[in-house]
Amino acid sequence: MSTANPLQQTIEALAKEKGIEPEVVIQAMEEAVLTASRKFYKGDEELKAKFNPENGQIELFAVKTIVEDVTAPGKEISIAEAKEIYGEDAEVEVGYQIEFPKRTDVLGRIAAQTAKQVIFQKVREAERENVFAEYNQRVGEVMNGLVKRFEQGDIIVEVGRVEAILPRKEQSRAESYAQGDRVRAVIRGVSKSAKGPQIVLSRTDPALLIKLFEQEVPEIYDGTVMIRGAVREAGDRAKVAVYSRERDVDPVGACVGMKGTRVQAIIRELRGEKIDIVDFSDDPVQFVMNALSPAKVQRVTIVDDKEKVMEVVVEDSQLSLAIGKKGQNVRLAAKLTGWRIDIKSEEEKRKEVEAQFGALEAANAEPEAEPAAAAAAGEESKG
Questions:
Q1: What is the per-residue pLDDT across 114-162, written as a single tens digit (0 to 9) for each?
Q2: What is the mean pLDDT of residues 225-231?
Q3: Looking at domain 205-280, does it have CATH number 3.30.300.20?
Q4: H-type alpha helices, 19-53
């Protein structure tokens, strides 16, 4: 049983540690030897480095092309000279390339240092490319990590063998963390920077809410219940529109769970964020009525279909609930449905209708008053 040579073992160990292919390390070593050799030999030779797996050495060659007449001795060899080396019967033709071994043991300490730097740089580049490629495909996934440190309000999170950033603007205002805390966040994006790929996490993105529902609700995971929209004001309130593909499955009930266990698990994860789960409807009027939950709606009128504007009338006692704290309920409902919602109480609507009737009556009375005034003026002139 043959054992791998020491260099081969080093290459494989380094590749495994950095999560890259052994070929990348070999390529980096070949390039390193090549860079160091060019510094040492300083000629115009065309050099080539090649890893020999049999002896575990990076071998160096000067490559010369066979030509009729040599014009660049460092890179060319005449066909006559090639035949002298290989014999008259050898198959050597113009255009073929011959490799001449060169010594690498003379490269010295500075060359070795250069080689080390090149290897380090190449391996790091390959590692970064791997990280970028891996996490770029995982945008929208939920990750678990540990809070490592804080940088000007941003949280640096250790995710597996890499670091990710949870920027201040992607943090929920209801949450605070200490070093070593576990954090679950959604991958918002991956960007390339001079320091390497930067994985950006979010605790405010609606995608986190959707993923948490997928994890907690089997009916969503298996596709029986579908999330048709999710909006959040992180740390305060969220609305989720759900739809069932099977008649006998109640989508809201499935998401809430027995005695609210499923939704409570999500609320705990989001540090007490209130979650309204509503039925999705293809009918925009019905959808808006559902989205304004927990407020009860009296009636809905489409004001402008093209501009997507609706007027909603609620009982006087329901007005503050429909609007919500600082307008939050109606704002989230508008975001969820894609309609602009104008909420009015029964009293406001009644006054508005009365004012319209009053204006209409006044407008109708004016034409009658004008002929009467004209007749009176005519009588006066006769007298």
A1: 767 777 787 788 888 888 888 999 999 999 999 999 999 999 999 988 8
A2: 96
A3: yes
A4: 22-41
Average pLDDT over every residue of 367-377: 53
Residue 310's pLDDT is what? 94
Q: Does domain 6-133 have CATH number 3.30.1480.10?
A: yes
Q: Which helix (H) or strand (E) holds 230?
A: strand 225-233
DSSP one-letter code for 137: T
pTM above 0.85, yes or no: no
Nearest alpha carbon to residue 65 among 100, 111, 90: 100
Rounded to the nearest 5 percent, the helix, strand and coil shares of the chain are 45, 30, 25
In angstroms, the CA 92 to CA 83 distance is: 7
Residue among 337, 133, 327, 141 nearest 229 (CA): 337
First to last CA, the chain: 138
Q: Which CATH number fits domain 138-202: 2.40.50.140, 3.40.50.300, 1.20.120.140, 2.40.10.220?
A: 2.40.50.140
Tell me, yes or no, if the two domains 205-280 and 283-370 fold the same way.
yes
Tokens linked to 270: 């989001």
Whether cis (ω within 30° of 0) applies to the bond prior to 294 is: yes
